[in-house]
Amino acid sequence: MTVVQGVRKRYSRTGPWVLDGVDLTVDPGVVTVIVAGNGIGKSTLLRLVAGASVPTGGRITGRPDTVGYVPERAPAAIRMTARQYLGHIGRMRGLPPGQTQARVDELAERLSLVPGPDVPIASLSKGNGQKVAVMQAFLKPPELLVVDEPATGLDAPARAELAAMMSEAEQDGARILLSAHESAVPNGKLYRLLNGKLVPEALRGMRIALRPTRPGLSSAGLAAEILLEEPGRVVVRTDDADTLLLKALADGWSLIEAVS
């Protein structure tokens, strides 16, 4: 397991504490989820756990040799092609060149990298650049997987494929730490970051994703807590799923998924 003990972080000697005494255990085969608003410090915490930054105080122990880290925003100004960049990452992780190249082709196909891995990363769209960030995290099966806002920048098929890849890693015993919107929280341990500290939080109610089947449908008529609203999709939370679904279906909504 990876253990975070009393970790504190600030970016200057007199600056505010972004993290102020964080304790956390990331266990094998379990998804640990951090929920927080923007600018609260969740990305800072994930970078610390991944080893991409160092804490001002406290310590992190049990970090394995193979860490896969997907940042919220992938570096864009890289002149190398995706294949060259991932080849460099593969060498750093001790992978034979042939194995690296085969894995690059496999991941590029799974994530539908367009126009492919043989063009400069700087020329890729934001979404495809983010796919390269996902590919480098999974190039070698991670023992610890850290993913910051997994849905950021990815299209729906790539989000679904990333979810499948995370599930495979979980089944293989990887420790998984991610930050997510509440509408996308998977099963696992949930924590909220408040005032620089983590607070355990139980998942409340059932989250239901709905799609309108006719123009003019308003989420206001669902009588539930709206977690996410975007074109063609609304995610709500309710303590009475049966009643909500009966009304929603009668009004013309279509069920995408329901997660307890």
TrEMBL record:
Keywords on record: ATP-binding, Nucleotide-binding, Transport
Domain of life the protein comes from: Bacteria
SUPFAM superfamilies: P-loop containing nucleoside triphosphate hydrolases
Keyword Nucleotide-binding: yes
Residue ranges annotated for the ABC transporter domain, each copy included: 2-220
InterPro entries according to UniProt: AAA+_ATPase, ABC_transporter-like_ATP-bd, ABC_Transporter_VariousFunc, P-loop_NTPase
A molecular-function term among this protein's GO annotations: ATP binding
PANTHER family: ABC TRANSPORTER ATP-BINDING PROTEIN ALBC-RELATED
Protein name stated in the entry: ABC transporter
Organism: Kibdelosporangium aridum
